[in-house]
Amino acid sequence: MSDDQEPTTPPPPAEESDAERLERAIHDQPTVAPARWVVKIVAVIVLVGVALLVWWVGRSLLPREWAQHVKGQANGSLTAGTSWGLFYGFVFTFVPLVLLFQIRRRFFSWAWRGIVAVAAVVLAIPNWLTLYIVVSGSKAAHDGERIFSDNAPGFRWGSLWGAVVGAVLAVLITGASMRLARRKKQVAQLKGERDELRARQREAEEARRED
Question: 210 vs 123, 141, 203, CA distance in Å?
């Protein structure tokens, strides 16, 4: 092959079709997405709307259903109505409050504290329903109160006293637990100071022996 051979030129690039140019223009466009604050506002609006819907449905149906449930348990008996009132008032006040008081734990993040608080509120729903029936002026609440009066005598007062006893006991137990934890911390601190003092005394005795 001769050294004077001319170099071959590369073929010209293929002409880009209209479809390819359109596809490339689409890919070159910047991504359009809503700002984070817009997403948060929309999420809050949706959550508020769902909460209002649940509240509206609940206030119309749940008080009557709850009263019917208590009616089936009390069966018109004053003793049974009072006993079930004490049970619901105590359990669904004591357990939610003890759970709610756990948010003081330092190992809980703020998110978990919020979850625990919501769980405590949900656990107290039986007492919330009874309270709503007693204090609300809605038709569903009036129907529930009439069912309590006719078929579950003593339930409302039993719920009140059960809730009072449950709240007092939850506060006392939580207070005692906090004092016990504080004393354990103080004892551990005193033991540490005692061990440090003993170590210093041993070092001083060894120094005197060496002298």
Answer: 69, 88, 11
Measured CA to CA, the distance from residue 74 to residue 63 in angstroms comes to 16
Distance CA 89, CA 118 (A): 19
Tokens of 35: 């700002």
**Tokens standing for 115?**
């979850």
Phi, psi of 179 (to 5 degrees): -65, -40
Matching residue, tokens 């440090």: 196
Other CB atoms closer than 10 Å to residue 38's CB: what's the count? 10
* pLDDT tens-digit map of 21-64: 667 666 666 555 566 777 777 777 877 777 777 766 666 778 88
pTM: 0.66
Q: Give the N- to C-terminal CA distance of the chain in Å, as an integer.
A: 102
How far CA 20 is from CA of 11, 62, 78, 147, 168, in Å, comes to 20, 61, 83, 74, 76
- For residue 3, the tally of other CB atoms under 10 A from its CB is 4
Query: Sign of dihedral through CA atoms 63, 66, 72, 77?
Result: negative
Nearest residue to 54 (alpha-carbon basis) of 124, 112, 133, 125 = 125
CB atoms closer than 10 angstroms to residue 124:
22
